[in-house]
Every structure is written in C-alpha cells, then in structure tokens.
C-alpha cells in the first residue's frame, strides 16, 4: 500500500486522491480533446490493484502539463533525506502499469523532460559527479539514453558515443550480443569511436536486469576504454542489475521498487 | 547575414568537416551523412548546439520536439539551454502513455509517428529538431502532430539539409534552419563540404527564404559563460 503519494505541485489542496487517466470525464483528456483530434489510442489498462489511480488535474501554469500525476511505492521514502532536487525528480517520473506487457510497471521519463528545471537538475546531478574526473567518453544506449548522455557529455567536455541496435550505425561496427528474457539482442558501436585508455561513462535512463549496460560496458572495454562508472536516472533494484556489472560501480538518482 | 558573424562561418565550416559521409548506406546510391563523427569532437558538438541556442533563446519557445532517435541527441541540449521542455516524437509502440499518431509516407510504404497526449499545450511555441532533413516527410509528420494540438511551430531546425531532395518544399510556409548545408550531388562521395554562405539566399526558385542569417549578429555576451559558449550561460 502507499504511505504517501508524490504528486506534482499544487495538489495539497485536493480533498481526495487524484485519479490518473480514468474515464472520459477526466479533465486531462477533455482538455485536449477537440474536433481536431482523431480517436486516441489508449493502450494502458489500469487493472492493477497496486496502483492508486490519479487524476490528471488541470494546471493553470502555462508550461505545466495537466496530466502529470502518479503515486509511488512507499519504500522510495528512504530517499527523503536526499538532495531536494532528487525528490523533485522522483515526483516527475510517471509510472505506467502494464506496459509494454501485463505486470510491468513502466518508468516513464518523458514527464521528467517536460519540466525544464527537473530535467536540468537531473543533468546537473550527473555533471557535478563526473566533471573533473578526466572522463573523455560518454556512451549512451539507444534511444532514451540519447536524451541524457549528450547533455552530460557537452557539460564535461567529453565526446558522445551512441550505442545502437543492429544496422543503425552506418560505418564499421563492433557488436556485442546479450541475452533477453526471451531470446537475444545485439548492441553496436562504431569502430574508432573510442581509443585505448580513454575513461568512459555509460549513461542510460534506467537499469533493470543490467543486460544492456553490461553489453555496453563490454563494447567499450573491447575497444580498449576503461569504464569508470555506469550512470542511470532510475534503478529497479529488485531486478539486481547491479550484480551484472562485473564489479563496476553504478550511480543512480532514483530507485523504484 | 552569415558574414556578420565571423565566428559563425568558422564554426559552420568545422562542423561540416566533422560530418562523415558513408556511401551506399543503408542501400546502394545513398550517401549517408553520419553525424556520429561530429559527436566525437566536443568542440564541434558544442558549437552545433550553440548555434541553435543563440538563435532560439529569447524567442519565447517553450517546446523543443525531437524526432527519434538522432533528434534525441540534438534536441535535449538545446531545450535545456533555452529553458524549454523536451518532447520526444517516436515510432509506434515506444511511448508508454496515451498518444496521438500521425501517418506519413515513405519512398516505399508508410510509417507512423507518435507523441504523448498532454505533452504540449495549445498556444505553446515550438521548434522541431532532427539531425537531417531529406524529403521532409518526418518533419512534416511532426509538424502536423504539434499543430493538431494547437501548438505554433515556429521553425524546424536541422544540422544537415539535403537540398536536392526538396524537403524544404514539403514544409510549406514554415521556415527551416540548418547549421550546415551539404550541396551533395547524388552518387558522389563528398570530400569536403561547402557550407552555404550568405544565409543560403542563393537557393533555387521556390525555396523558402531562410531566416538563419536575417537577424542581427548574435550578442554572445549574454550567452558567454566561463566556457565561452552559449551553453555556459545555463550552467553547462
């Protein structure tokens, strides 16, 4: 059960728990519905009893999305003593139940990106940690890693190296296969992107089982780089991804159980 | 005018020279413009972002939309620097929440672009960013998605344009900006790039008049942080 709900701002005045994307009377949906809209594709179902449904609340501030509400597990309150920026970042991450398949609680960072201050704080927290550590490479995993890696690279003066699914990178590549729950996948990096001895950071939005991070680390190490640390916005610690990183340190801002 | 920005010309030339061309990718006859080599040069990458930031800050732009996946590399740094939100535009079934979709045509077949419901509000001013504009199909789809929810698309901004594919014409009357322009002759490997001078005003008939160099010289003093970059003003 939830001991508290982390809400976006201005909800202290609400007298009842908000609901998230409920029925058509929700103000979040009807605000945007207009004659211009084709039927919306509504993929998420909210059958999970674990999730308290929160209603999108109309928000009068210009740049603030009206739909941005959710609740988080009470164990995240362990982070209450942390940097206040982290607490705010946590509140901006939206959880979508049963995506991409039933039983999965998807951590949606797109809502974090809609808050310029929270997005900047996210980047700042990484930059503060990694500047002046002689890191010359920031590598990120397609596609959400591409959102966080480049700003960090720019701020610390490192090169940015995209790690991609097969056949996306146009030049000569090295490939690393890794195991999925069912089957395998492959991650690629351009030959020549990193040089022997460079110090590298791997950045992604989230670490779950650690499979993709591990593949990323292998690619960099095969090219002769030294992986200094892996950095993610969110960790799902129950999936023990940390143990798959061959002893390399993992730094995250937010845990979600 | 580009000539009013002595630094501008120099930066564009270096950016253009850092872009690698890979012939016959993804299929024979295509000269693929590879921006990953630009990303390996921190100074060139920073200059690329700076050029966009200098253009868009102070323009009351609250939304930067980026098209998956290479648009995700250039959009967020620009959004962060100008204080705008970043909105990813994605292929189908990637965005987890409720979405609106726009179909667009490819050379063979069609594709679909999606955006989260609620990401933007009517009346917001937006720019759309991608690494490259070719036929303009994806940019067009992105424009339509944003306009459907009442957003004003101020400009489309790309690092590279392939002018012979006339993508600009598909944007209608919406302006397009790009930092460097490759005058590619299809099927020929380009050794060096010739960035457009004079703001690209020597474009062919029917081309949209570019706004790129029509503004007064950018005052870098407001944007210059410790690192001498527009990004520096925002703590980067």
TrEMBL record, chain A:
Entry's family note: Belongs to the purine/pyrimidine phosphoribosyltransferase family.
EC code(s) of this entry: 2.4.2.7
InterPro entries with a match to the protein in the record: Ade_phspho_trans, Adenine_PRTase, PRTase-like, PRTase_dom
Chief location: cytoplasm
Keyword Transferase listed: yes
Pathway noted in the entry: Purine metabolism; AMP biosynthesis via salvage pathway; AMP from adenine: step 1/1
Protein name from the UniProt record: adenine phosphoribosyltransferase
Origin species: Nepenthes gracilis (Slender pitcher plant)
Reaction equation(s) it catalyzes: AMP + diphosphate = 5-phospho-alpha-D-ribose 1-diphosphate + adenine
Keywords, in A-Z order: Cytoplasm, Glycosyltransferase, Purine salvage, Transferase
A Pfam family per the record: Pribosyltran
Phosphoribosyltransferase domain: residues covered: 115-239
Single GO biological process annotation from the record: purine ribonucleoside salvage
From TrEMBL, chain B:
GO cellular component terms given for this protein: cytosol
GO molecular function: adenine phosphoribosyltransferase activity
Family statement: Belongs to the purine/pyrimidine phosphoribosyltransferase family.
SUPFAM superfamilies: PRTase-like
Family matches, as InterPro entries: Ade_phspho_trans (IPR005764), Adenine_PRTase (IPR050120), PRTase-like (IPR029057), PRTase_dom (IPR000836)
Keyword Cytoplasm: yes
Domain Phosphoribosyltransferase: 42-170
Pfam families: Pribosyltran
Protein name in UniProt: adenine phosphoribosyltransferase
Localization, UniProt: Cytoplasm
One GO BP annotation of this record: adenine salvage
EC number annotated for this UniProt entry: 2.4.2.7
Matches recorded under PANTHER family: ADENINE PHOSPHORIBOSYLTRANSFERASE, ADENINE PHOSPHORIBOSYLTRANSFERASE 1, CHLOROPLASTIC
Organism name: Nepenthes gracilis (Slender pitcher plant)
Catalytic activity: AMP + diphosphate = 5-phospho-alpha-D-ribose 1-diphosphate + adenine
